[in-house]
């Protein structure tokens, strides 16, 4: 089967691309550390600029055409892990991301956008997207991380239905005696809730965005910050190459990436749709 070509917007270290396992041909991120990490893991030099840079949206600019666009624009303005959760200029980068994705994706291609919460659901559906919620542990991953996704184009069915996000960002999942519980919370509102890590032989951790939330332990009192390598393993990327940087910056870089399960899910949906096209 044809290996789909990829463009990655707000690419980070390229965790979405690693899970999807396509052929990266174009990537962009405004963070120099993210661009360096993406190059180390994919052998492709991203454009280090903002996705709302005017030159990218100039109709005379030359851009590649790809099968699939993956994007997860900044979430801090919308996320309940952030200081406000009220929306702002950074959250509106979703509009620029979709406009750029539509220039990059070929007819019959697919655009997948991680949206974090429900604030932009009506906008995405108004733009013709199907919207769904994915949870890492539902897809065979180690964490309770949940994200809302919008998908345009060659949308295969069935998609998982929209459902309420876990209360407190991590309801207790079914577990066995001996499994290790991790706790997630942040320095803004001090909320903590237990979330299962299914492998008792792995470091206990629930991966969320924001370096202050990456803690390992069985209670708030008995916890420590997770290392970037532990976070990468629990995201499903044990072979991730990490550049030289501060622990704080690497925690942010890895924590903001997709668990491998999300990329695999969308690759399976793409392959399913490609099979339908071939059969037709």
Question: What do you see in this structure?
Answer:
The chain has helices at residues 15-20, 32-42, 93-104, 121-126, 228-234, 247-255, 260-279, and strands spanning 5-9, 23-29, 47-48, 66-71, 105-114, 130-135, 146-153, 180-185, 192-197, 215-217, 223-225. It is of the alpha/beta class. It has a seven-stranded mixed sheet with strand order 3-2-1-4-5-7-6, sandwiched between helices. A two-stranded antiparallel ribbon has the order 8-9.
**How many E-type strands?**
11
Q: Sheet bearing the most strands, described?
A: 7 strands, mixed
Q: Round the mean pLDDT to the nearest integer and report it.
A: 74
Multimer state: single chain
Give start-end ranges of low-pLDDT stretches: 80-86, 164-213
If strands are numbered along the chain, what order do they take across the biggest sheet? Answer: 3-2-1-4-5-7-6
| Helical run tally | 7
Q: What's the end-to-end separation, in Å?
A: 15 Å
Which class do the helix and strand fractions yield? alpha/beta
Mass-distribution shape: globular
């Amino acid at each position: 089967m044809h290996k789909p070509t990829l463009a990655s917007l707000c690419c980070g270290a390229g965790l979405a691309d690693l899970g999807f396992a396509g052929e990266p041909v174009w990537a962009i991120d405004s963070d120099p550390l993210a661009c360096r990490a993406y190059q180390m893991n994919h052998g492709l030099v991203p454009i280090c600029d903002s996705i709302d840079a005017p030159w990218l949206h100039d109709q005379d600019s030359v851009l590649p055409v790809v099968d699939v666009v993956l994007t997860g624009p900044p979430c801090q303005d919308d996320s309940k892990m952030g200081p406000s959760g009220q929306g702002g200029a950074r959250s509106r980068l979703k509009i620029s991301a979709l406009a750029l994705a539509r220039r990059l994706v070929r007819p019959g291609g697919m655009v997948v956008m991680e949206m974090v919460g429900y604030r932009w659901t009506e906008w995405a559906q108004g733009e013709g997207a199907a919207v769904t919620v994915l949870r890492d542990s539902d897809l065979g991953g180690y964490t309770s991380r949940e994200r809302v996704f919008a998908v345009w184009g060659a949308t295969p069915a069935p998609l998982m239905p929209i459902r309420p996000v876990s209360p407190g960002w991590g309801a207790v999942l079914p577990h066995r005696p001996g499994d290790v519980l991790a706790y997630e919370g942040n320095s803004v509102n001090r909320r903590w809730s237990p979330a299962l890590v299914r492998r008792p032989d792995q470091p206990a951790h629930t991966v969320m965005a924001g370096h202050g939330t990456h803690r390992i332990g069985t209670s708030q009192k008995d916890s420590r910050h997770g290392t970037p390598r532990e976070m990468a393993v629990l995201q499903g990327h044990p072979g991730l190459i990490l550049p030289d940087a501060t622990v704080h910056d690497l925690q942010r870089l890895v924590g903001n990436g997709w668990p491998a399960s999300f990329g695999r899910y969308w690759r399976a949906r793409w392959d399913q749709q490609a099979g339908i096209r071939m059969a037709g």
